[in-house]
Write a structure and sequence with these properties.
Strand content: 5-15%
Shape: globular
Helix content: 25-40%
Radius of gyration: 18 Å
Distance between the termini: 67 Å
Strand order of the largest sheet: 1-2-3
């Protein structure tokens, strides 16, 4: 089989750039198209063997600073591919400050119209960039920890890390 000639044109479906970040909640795979953060995954992503773009180096530094309690906010360009409703919810998530939480119903009430807590929850569950876009800061109306893409144990850890939940609330007697 003849080899493909090398060209300087970009590959249309080449794997995106990925950096692996070691964290207290396990390995995190952060993906970028070279300009924007496109995804954060708790499961392995294909790592492209190439020089990391600056945005991924920044993401690695900012995640390390977050987990070391040296930073409370992410300043990274993120890609928001989703419906207009999802994009609205994801933007609202970034307005929930470190050390605070909101509820799905409170976000639905802020949106107004036909928004209901369940649709807000679905949008949170579709967030491709957890932690950086902090969907872990949203609780049920009763204050319960409900679904999280990384598992409830990670949501609990993140909320304890940020001081939203006291560890003593979950310690076994």
């Amino acid at each position: 089989m003849p080899s493909r000639p090398k060209t300087s044109e970009p590959e249309l479906f080449a794997p995106l750039h990925v950096v692996v970040v070691e964290s207290p909640v396990g390995k995190l795979w952060v993906e970028s198209d070279g300009a924007l953060i496109t995804r954060l995954s708790f499961e392995a992503l294909h790592v492209r063997q190439a020089k990391l773009p600056p945005v991924l180096e920044q993401a690695h530094r900012q995640l390390d600073a977050y987990f070391e309690r040296r930073s409370r906010k992410f300043e990274l360009p993120v890609q928001r591919l989703g419906s207009r409703f999802q994009q609205l919810v994801w933007a609202m998530l970034e307005d929930i400050p470190y050390g605070s939480a909101s509820t799905y119903q409170a976000l639905a009430d802020r949106i107004g119209g036909k928004a209901i807590a369940r649709t807000v929850g679905n949008a949170c569950g579709s967030n491709p960039i957890p932690i950086i876009v902090p969907c872990h800061r949203v609780l049920s109306s009763e204050g319960l920890l409900t679904g999280y893409i990384g598992g409830i144990w990670r949501k609990k850890w993140l909320l304890e890390h940020e001081g939203v939940l006291g560890k003593e609330l979950f310690d076994e007697a």
